[in-house]
Known about the structure:
The structure is a homodimer.
Chain A lengths: L10 E7 L4 H10 L6 E8 L5 H8 L4 E3 L11 H13 L4 E4 L8 H6 L4 E5 L11 H8 L3 E8 L9 E8 L6 H24 L3 E4 L2 E4 L2
Parallel strand pairs in A: 1-2, 1-4, 2-3, 4-5
Antiparallel strand pairs in A: 5-6, 6-7, 8-9
Helix pairs in contact in A: 1-6
Amino acid sequence: MSQPTSPQHKLRLGVLGSGSGTNCQALLDACAKPDFPAEIAVIISDVENAKILDRARQAGIEARWIAPGKFRTKLEPEVEQRYVAALRQHNVELVCLAGFMRVLKDDFLKAFPGRVINIHPALLPAFPGLESWKQALDHGAKVAGCTVHFVDAGVDSGPILVQAAVPVLDSDTAQTLHARIQVEEHRIYPEAVRLIAEGRLRVEGRRVLRRE
Amino acid sequence: MSQPTSPQHKLRLGVLGSGSGTNCQALLDACAKPDFPAEIAVIISDVENAKILDRARQAGIEARWIAPGKFRTKLEPEVEQRYVAALRQHNVELVCLAGFMRVLKDDFLKAFPGRVINIHPALLPAFPGLESWKQALDHGAKVAGCTVHFVDAGVDSGPILVQAAVPVLDSDTAQTLHARIQVEEHRIYPEAVRLIAEGRLRVEGRRVLRRE
């Protein structure tokens, strides 16, 4: 885990996303506050016209589209190295996935060891994978939520940094439940980044604990 | 599901448990209130000296020990029928599992269709099985909880009636987390019984919804 950083240094984030980037926006908003200990160095998408790139440009932050290659759920190995190079070029210290719809392979993870985090719209280990708010609704869960976790080689399986719970209402549709979860996502993702930037976490096996 | 019952009728519960029966005590305490719409008709254990049977006797409620037979995790079929007979003899309308450490088979479930509920110390579908509070802690979950669910042929897999979440603290041991979950268990188990007794639930597939 990171050492406590000096008050002057802001942790440099690289954000990867494929879609509208509402979690990226939450990070942009947090980073816009003077006392927030991180800043976004670059925002990269595998989708050329993704709204997340518009958000980057609007915030005056470097927006990069890097074409993903021929696969649907992962990057070609040489493309993955292009992502790594772009992140390194911007001196990225922490990679934040924000709706990035491709699995990152070992070579990428080794380039940023313990330095890739993701936000998932469920209380992991429940409902990994896609559209987990819909999974929760269809399963009849009464409590749903979201999880910020370190990314490892599995799917939504890395050590958990922060979780938040929300109720599932009888009247919920997939859309209303998703919206309620997103409110918490936008709160806990900046919170997790802050904890890392301030060097306040330590990992013990699967448990991510606050430093004393 | 049950039809709304008349104000005079109290839903007759049969409680099955193998251990200390703290959830049974929560049901006993709820049933002791005049306005609670259920009463415990019989408490049955597979363990002769289980504390749950002392709780029954102390409350003046029929306590039955029915020896489980030769298996460790289920009842012998003829023993299961003895359980069914005892519950029927007491006109039990809803079977509440409270730390009953044996899987009930189809013949039992068919005798009380949609009329067997259980409380599980995790936010199902996360952490089914044994010592789920310890599973949650070891997994590094930041949110834990408990679930009241209908019992089906699977393990902790039936439709969910009520769930409650609790935080996991860095300082938690298995014991302190378990204690925090139990506080919520003792609240939601009587709540679930009340919802059934008042005929306020309907089941749609896996979803258990309140009647309008």
